[in-house]
Amino acid sequence: MTDIDPRVRAALDALGIEYTLVPCDPELADTAAFCAAYGYDTGDSANTIIVESRDKPPRNAACVLLATTKLDVNGTVRRRIGRKTSFAGPERTMELTGMSLGGVTAVALPPGLPLWIDARVMERDKVILGAGNRHWKVIAPPGFLATLPGAEVVEGLARDA
Q: What are the boundaries of each domain within the chain?
């Protein structure tokens, strides 16, 4: 089996936090499939989504939100970026992060990429995150997210689905 992304492991270990790695069938890496197959609560799953402005060149940010919510891309995200914004496609996400959809994580993002975390994520006892690839998930207390480079906890980043 493919190992966890080495950048992600190094970043987690450098933080000194307690975390658990969970192997995942890559065909089941998408949140709903993963939770259903492995018995996890979707309310504990935190998705990392890359957004992109329509500027030339585009501006990007990584947004972390609970799987039970929806990113407020036309409201909060647009106001923060200052322009019309959309989800970055799979190719652009890979180009920016080196991670494929289903494995994108807030950990080990490239320097200078803003990391916005919906405040509701911080209320959970634990969160399930991607691990940089579709073969692993990381489970950890959410507080560490606010200590990551470029991280900012944002009220109203996501809304109820």
A: 6-160
